[in-house]
Structures are given as C-alpha cells and as structure tokens.
Amino acid sequence: SDNGLSGRYCLAQNVWQPTEHMSNRRWSVSSMRSVSSDEDGQVGLSTPLDPAIVSAAGRTDFSGTWVRDNGASEGLLPYLIAHGHTAAKAEQNAERVYQQTWKQAGEDPLVWTVATEATNHTSGAVEISRVIEYVMGAWDEPFKGGSSLFGESPGVVRRQTGWESQNESSTGVAHVTMSETPLGREETRRWLEGEKQMVCQRTYTPPPLSTEPPITAIERFLRQ
C-alpha cells in the first residue's frame, strides 16, 4: 500500500551529475536518475528531496552494529556469480561473517558513517575492510581492489546517495546509493523492518554491451 511519501519519479538514463551542482542541497536519488540536457548538452538535476522524505529519513535510526543473517539472504549466490565470481568463491563470500557499524556523521541526521567488517579469507580474522561516509549527493569512493562487487583491480567508484520512499520500510523510506563501478551499475537500498532488522536490497545492472539482465539480491542484518 502507498505510505503517503512521494519519493520516486520517472526513471531516465543514468547520468552522473558533478558534485558542485548539488552543494548545500538534498537531492533524491530518483531525481538524480531523472536528468535533462540544456542547449549546451550539460546534464542538469531537478526536484530536491521532498520534505516528507527528509522528515521520515530523520526518524530512520540505523545506529549500532548490524550482523548479516547469512541464512536469510535471498539470491546472493547468483548475484555474486554475476559479478564474475566462481560458485565456490561466491559461496565463501555469502557465508563469511559480515557486519556493519552505523553512526550519524556530524549534525546532519541524513548522513551516516559506516564501518564494514568481514572475514579475511587469508587470515580468517574478522577485520574492518572499509569505512565510508555516505554524504548526500554525488561522491567518489576510491578502492584498493579485491572487491566482491567492484572488481579485482583498484579504481574509483562514482556514487550518488539519497533517500526514497519504500513501502516495506517501518519508517516509509530507504537509504539509497547508486554506484557506477568498473563492472557495471549498482543500486543499494537499505531500510528498517522493525527496530531489530535492516534489509539491504542490491540490484546489479551489467554494462550496456552485456546481454545479461539486471539481477537483485537481498541481505538481512540483525541489530546487536
């Protein structure tokens, strides 16, 4: 059923918008998808984040440590295989310890810092693999390579983060990040179902020349 929040607009071609066009504004990810070109061919954005979305996002409390419930994942093995992993490697990644600690970054309740910990396949220890601040709008994430989703070679992932309405969410919204990676495009949606469960829905779209269709996986995290 409709949750009363207007947060999605028509899906247009996915074009990245320079960060300077989004300074001091809160943009919905759907408005980042809905792009238009001016006479000079410059891509422009419209539709700032709806006040109702901002309010609901401010009530969405991701704070704390979340551990993935590996037995509750849906479609994760084929999702990882679609990223080039062997079946054995995909199973190893799907069954390892994977947890995240979320905390608000500064005074903006919509911005979160996330520390991810996972099993090191070489040492077997659970280690912090990355710490990210999910700012609103467009941002870049350098990575060292060896990523299960971004590829083996080091590079930079171009990302855009915002909030959108989500009927399944306890607060009516999801935290959404669109990413352009060396392997294709990713949409990651996170929302709360009650106070103890965070759902992470990932959709991977292969490069345009690929004949493979988009594929989606769901991970469920339990608050500790």
UniProtKB/TrEMBL annotation:
Region (Disordered): 163-185
Ranges of biased composition (kind: Polar residues): 163-172
Origin superkingdom: Eukaryota
The protein's name: Uncharacterized protein
Organism from which the protein derives: Tetraselmis chuii
